[in-house]
Amino acid sequence: MSFQFNFEDSDLEIDETNIVQIPHQSVDSNNTTTLKSLDSNWPVDLIKAESLKLNELLSTLKDVRLTYSKFKLNSETEIIRRELYDIRHQIMSESDPTTNTEVVNLDFLDKDDLLKNVYEGGLTTWECSLDLVKYLDQTFSKNSENGKINKIIELGCGTALPSLYLLNQTFKNKVQNIDYMLCDYNEYVLRLVTLPNILINWYDEMISHAENVEIINSTQEQPENIVENEFTISAAFIDLFINYLNSNNIQINFAKGSWSNDLINIIDQNMSPENRLILTSETIYQPDTMPLLTETIMKLKENGSNNKIILATKDIYFGVGGNLVDFITLLKSKYSQSTYQIIKSDKSNRSLVMI
Ligand SMILES: C[S@@+](CC[C@H](N)C(=O)[O-])C[C@H]1O[C@@H](n2cnc3c(N)ncnc32)[C@H](O)[C@@H]1O
Question: 2-354, which class in CATH?
Answer without folding.
Answer: alpha beta
